Design the sequence.
């Protein structure tokens, strides 16, 4: 599947940071950056840009804040064409923290937003675009978006928003390939001047399959993480994505070394991947937080009770 | 995805037996049978029917031979509508070991065969069909079948073979959904009087995705294994398949209990699932045996060297 426009976007440290309060040490992050650079990966997302007025640096690792100086220490001395991205959440970023692009090692800023927060997301994107950054909007929890609201939000993005890419984010790992195809076609029918991105979660072992489905339907921005590291069930494994793409600019071998040397040991200390409670929240289209709480309790392997607890709400 | 004709086919003990020389104890196998029965799974494949002249019962567990008396001990006293299947390999079965269906607890016999062994497979299938069994042919290593040979083999199956179902078997875990779709359409274009089956391996985390793709294109026999247990990367996880199918006859809860009680502890002792060397053989369309050997060596985490060793053959 060679298509020159395809961009492989790694978010190992950013999404993986949700597993450990963004507390990766510099040696580890440099190893990731070096391997991604050697592998020819187009972008590396290194963390969130959160306001220190809202979150204390005492409680989190540095990749929850992504100070430019901290990023400089990671990339220093490593030959690379890999661009650096940071993510911001609506209502959590202090825009004064973001310097003009010319003064920053950051190339891209991705704004994560629910459909309902479209106006806030567009404000942020346009602000960062005006400062010189590449920008995206990542529409979270897409499996719960009502079609009419999504249509309106996409119309606004097409007409009012300077983002280069609009992402489909399957936050709950609920999509399968028919729904992924439906969403891609919907996005493409409205977003005539934007690229589309796919950020998939692996609750049902469909993150890679849904990403392939997106590729088939001409999505060009593809998120993955090394060894699938990421919150809960994790993400589309970057090594599989690179193994699938036949673009000669990519080399899987530095990623294989990185997994051998860093991620196999890490997996002994940190839990992510295909675990039944995450599969259950994916099947039921639920946020993984209840499953994460379960995994931190003594009932961590009590799957039936957990499943039934999610069925139990009388709503009417 | 409710379609009445869909049959869910569990091969946990059969394919899982390839991980432990078919040496599951009766208590475990009964627990699997009971859970599958309660979950409404249509078939359970319990092992292989191999000739004791070729393999010694001293060297293998009983599910490499599947004596009727051993099967009787498993199913005795458990209320069930789940049918029992055994698999035979071309050239490894002694057909005299197979009694007429009326005298046996076995309902179905599946014949595993490469494309080249089509005539032997048809002979076996017709022999077992004449003895009263439901039968299938499972075409292994489909990702390496040459199109013209596959066409001829399918023509023969349609015209000369009494099998009820012809299976696509992605032995190497190489397919992705476009190739799965291509093969399903090819099978359906020739096999007008047969059902099609899908047996997927999970080297690239695509077993469930490819099985969904098969469902979308009207494949009705769907293989899975509990928690994905199976040789090397394992199989399509049965719990995901049941979670996806909206047929009210299935109940995921007994499978969740089974995983909690039996498969989480088993995974501590037995290795299967998404492991990089199996991903590599899947990406490169290779038999997993080299990766299995690697996992039993001191180089088990040396992924780059393994990858390069598979690239290294000069063929010309």
Sequence:
């Amino acid at each position: 599947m060679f298509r020159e426009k395809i961009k492989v976007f790694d978010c190992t440290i950013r999404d993986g940071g949700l597993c450990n309060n963004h507390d990766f040490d510099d040696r580890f992050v440099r190893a990731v950056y070096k391997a991604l650079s050697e592998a020819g990966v187009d972008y590396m997302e290194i963390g969130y840009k959160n306001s220190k007025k809202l979150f204390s640096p005492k409680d989190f690792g540095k990749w929850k804040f992504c100070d430019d100086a901290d990023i400089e220490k990671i990339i220093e001395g490593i030959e690379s064409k890999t661009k650096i991205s940071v993510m911001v959440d609506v209502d959590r970023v202090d825009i004064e923290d973001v310097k003009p692009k010319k003064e920053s090692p950051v190339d891209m800023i991705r704004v994560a937003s629910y459909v309902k927060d479209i106006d806030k997301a567009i404000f942020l994107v346009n602000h960062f675009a005006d400062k010189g950054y590449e920008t995206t909007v990542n529409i979270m929890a897409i499996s719960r978006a009502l079609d009419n609201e999504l249509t309106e939000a996409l119309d606004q993005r097409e007409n009012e928003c300077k983002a280069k890419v609009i992402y489909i984010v399957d936050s709950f790992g609920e999509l399968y390939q028919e729904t992924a195809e439906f969403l891609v076609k919907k996005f493409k029918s409205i977003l005539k001047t934007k690229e589309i991105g796919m950020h998939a979660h692996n609750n049902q072992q469909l993150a890679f399959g849904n990403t392939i489905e997106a590729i088939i339907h001409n999505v060009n921005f593809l998120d993955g993480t090394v060894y699938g590291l990421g919150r809960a069930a994790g993400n589309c494994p970057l090594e599989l994505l690179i193994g699938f793409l036949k673009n000669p600019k990519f080399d899987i071998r530095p990623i294989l070394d990185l997994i051998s040397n860093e991620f196999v040991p890490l997996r002994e200390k940190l839990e992510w991947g295909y675990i039944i409670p995450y599969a259950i929240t994916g099947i039921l289209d639920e946020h993984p937080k209840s499953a994460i709480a379960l995994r931190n309790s003594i009932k961590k392997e009590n799957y039936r009770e957990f499943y039934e607890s999610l069925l139990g709400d009388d709503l009417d």
Notes: The first strand of chain B starts at residue 7 and ends at 10. Chain B is about 40% helix and 15% strand. The two ends of chain B are 47 Å apart (CA to CA). Chain B has two domains: 7-269, 276-311.
